[in-house]
Every structure is written in C-alpha cells, then in structure tokens.
Amino acid sequence: MALSQRRECMQIQVGIPALTSHEVLAIARHHASIQISAEAVSAMEKSRARIDELAASPIPAYGISTGFGALATKHISPELRSQLQKSLIRSHAAGSGDAVEVEVVRAMMALRLSTMCTGRTGVRPEVAQRYADLLNAGISPLVREYGSLGCSGDLAPLSTCALALMGEGEVRDRNGHIVSADVALKAAGIPFTELVAKEGLALINGTDGMLGMLLMAIDDISMLVKCADITAAMSIEGLLGTDRVFAEDLHALRPHPGQIASAANLRKLLSDSPLIKSHAGDDDTRVQDAYSLRCAPQVAGAVRDTLSHAKSVAERELSSAIDNPVVLADGRVESNGNFHGAPVAYVLDYLAIAIADLASMSERRTDRMLDKSRSFGLSPFLADDPGVDSGLMIAQYTQAGLVSEMKRLAQPASVDSIPSSAMQEDHVSMGWHAARKLRRAVDALSRVLAIEFMTAARAIDLRRPLLPGSGTAAALACLRERVSGPGSDRWLTPEIEAAVSLVQSGSVVAVVEQVIGVME
Length: 520
Fold this sequence. Notes:
Elements: E1 11-14, H1 21-30, E2 33-36, H2 38-56, H3 81-92, E3 96-99, H4 102-116, H5 125-136, E4 140-141, E5 144-146, H6 155-165, E6 170-172, E7 178-180, H7 181-188, H8 199-202, H9 208-238, H10 248-252, H11 257-270, H12 274-277, H13 291-294, H14 296-318, E8 326-327, E9 333-334, H15 342-370, H16 393-409, H17 431-462, H18 470-480, H19 493-504, H20 507-516
Parallel strand pairs: 1-2
Antiparallel strand pairs: 3-5, 4-6, 6-7, 8-9
Helix pairs in contact: 1-4, 3-6, 4-5, 4-9, 9-11, 9-14, 9-15, 9-17, 11-14, 14-15, 15-16, 15-17, 16-17, 17-19, 18-20
C-alpha cells in the first residue's frame, strides 16, 4: 500500500555513492527515471575483469565456477556455466501466493541496481543497464508473497526479477496488465539478458526486498505519526480536555526527542482553541485527563524515537554493498555473511510493536468519546437520536478489530528462524516476513486513525457553538468536504473509506500544516 500519491518525478543518477532513501522512494512510488553514472560503469568494468580472470582459472571459485549453497563444493565446467546461471534463476524463482505491490518490486530492483553500481558484485554494466531499462519502461516482475527467508538474500523475490531480465516469467506492464516477460520486453525494445559467470548469484543475494519495504514504512509512519497528533488534539477538544500537560517545561523534564516534538505539535494545534479555553482556569473541576489524552506525546513520541533508530539502520543498509561472494577493492573475491537480514528484520519488528501501541491509544480515545459516562455531555455513541440511532458505535468495533489485528502483527518474525538448504543455511532472519506484516500494520494504523478522525470531528461539531483551534478546524473542514456532519444513521463504510483516503494520502497533515506550519 502506497500512502503517498503518485506524481511524475525527476531523473535519478545511480552510481557511487549509493541511492538515498529519497531516491529509492522516488523510483518506487513516483516512477522517477534512472540513468547509470559513468563512474559506476567504470567500477563495474573493473570488477568484472577480475571475475573473468577467476572464471578462466582451473581453481574453483564459489559462485563463479561452483554450485551454490549446499552444492558449493561441486565444480562446474566452463561449457555449463551459462546454463548454471539460468538454472540458478529458474530454480530460485520459486515464489507462491498473491503478487506483492508494484512499489515493492520497484524498490527492490532499484536497490539491487544500486548495489550493482558499486562495482562490488562483478556484474557487467549491461546487466545493470537492463535493470534500469525495466524500471524506466514501467515493467515490474510479478513477485509472489512467499519465498524469502531473509537470508542468502531475498532469494525467490529477487530471482523472479532476474527471471524477467532473461525474458521469462510474468510481469506487469506500465498499464498494470499482467503479460509474459518476453512480450513486455519485446514491446519495450529491451533485449533479453544472457547471464554469465557469477551474475545470477549477484542478482539475488541481497536484503533489497526487506530494505525497500522498511524505507516505505518509515516514510508512511513519519506522516501517520503527525496525523496521530492531529487526531489526538481533536479528541482532546471533543472531550473538553486540557492542554496544560503539554507545556514545554514539563516535557523538558524528560527529554526524549520524540516526546518533546509531539508535545510541541499538540501545543501548536491547541493554543488558539476556543474549546480548550472554554473550561480553562478555576472553573474546570477535573484534576487530570485520562492517560489516552494526557500521555499522547509520550506514546507518539516513543514511536518517533523508534523511527529514528529504524532510519539509522536503513541508512547504513543503503550504503552497503551486499553480495556473496563480493569483489573487494584489492581484487579479492571473498565469501561472507552480509546478506543476513537480522539488522533490518529487528527494526521492522520494532516498528510493528510501536505503531500497534499508537493505534491502541487512538482507539481508547475513540471509545471515550462514544461513552456517555466519560464524554462530558456528548450523546451516547454520538448518535442523533440514541436508541433509534446507533451513531458511531460499530465504527469503534471496526477500529477495535484493527487494533487487535495489529497486536497480532506485532509478534516478531525475526525470532522464528527455520533451517534450509540441507542445514547449510541453518539460521535465517525472516526479514521479508517482518516487512510484509509491517505493511499490513501500517495500513491498519491509517484506518484506526481515520476512525478517530471521524469520531473526534463529530464530537467537535456537537460542541457548537464552541469552535476548535485553527489547525484542527482545517482538518475538520477537509473531512467535511467528503463526509457529512452529525445526523441520523446512514451507511458508514463509504464515510470510513473517505476518511481513510484523506489520512493515507497525507491530505489531513497537509491542510493542517498550511495553517500552523510544519509539524515536528
């Protein structure tokens, strides 16, 4: 699921240094075009010459003149090495299940291309150019949901991409139609690639799938955590809460950067709110708000700090050249274990935990607004005619179901290693699975926040003539362009989906930032 809208973007040069996260997202989500730098071509030519030397040698070299994995000790004669590369890709393109999203495939291909361009994999420049050609033509191999254990690379997904390079398998064309790879490549004028020694292995031995999904999750959650501050502010207004607990000096006592940023956002959102000012001072008999209101910065802030850690891991992985064996600067070709996805898998799981808690707090605020005993004067379930109308009662059921699902998705995949390849690959990261479940969790979070958004907006409307602050008023107006205000019961699914669309597209954050400035 892409939370950001597709737009045409600039041309990106792939080379040395490696692609940045922004550039990967531009290629994956906004179909930026690609050009390979002259420096990268030179680096690839140099390392390829070293591979050709080893291929000509009578001494077996892993990945060049031997089999793979548990078959690494089997020497392959020169006349069979081209067939070896084809066999490797065909046999490893063993995915199953539904096709994954196009943006995931494009991110994976862009990252593998970036690694090729470091000159550390030994592929010929023309192989890298074919990847760039596929991306520029909008051709996306049909990668299946299952097939990677997150170690020895995202093998089945990356092999499926390499298979398309050979003119085999299935792809989606620029228009989203599923066609055979040979048809798509011929239509785009892209020649089939005949892989030579080492190249098949170089195309599949990386963490590119899980890293691509991590980059997109970081991008999505960075926007959604701002949206969570907006919906929290709206709920605080709807529940006649206080903004005093978000004072800067209070949060300076516990200087977690994310918490300080979230509290600053809440101050900006609530500072000019007539709803908040209506009960400020000695007339307010309540001592403290419930935790789901009062502690909003502590939870949303902790999510931000988790994001910061995930970003640092992603940046290190982006600057890596992952292959096995790898061509070193001094010409050595060495086996290694850098393809193990543990660093990426851990933070993918960590993010799933953090956003499950953020969603849980959002749902608690929603439930509070619907309960007449805790909503400070609002009608039961915010219904127009309670008893005849049920209001938003079942919208909260939907939200609760999503939160429960997110709690299950927060169970870590990275601790569930399972051995493979005749025990040669006896410990794996399951990073691909961690990434897939995080994508589902991110989608669920956007839906949880959308339902809080709808609920808080109705609660604010029911407080009239008191009005919200300027920032939250902008969010409410954005919603009201698509979703009607309070009234008798009506079909809620289209309204929920409209709110989800506004949250996922970033529209809610955008309209608020136009009023209060850029949020932390």
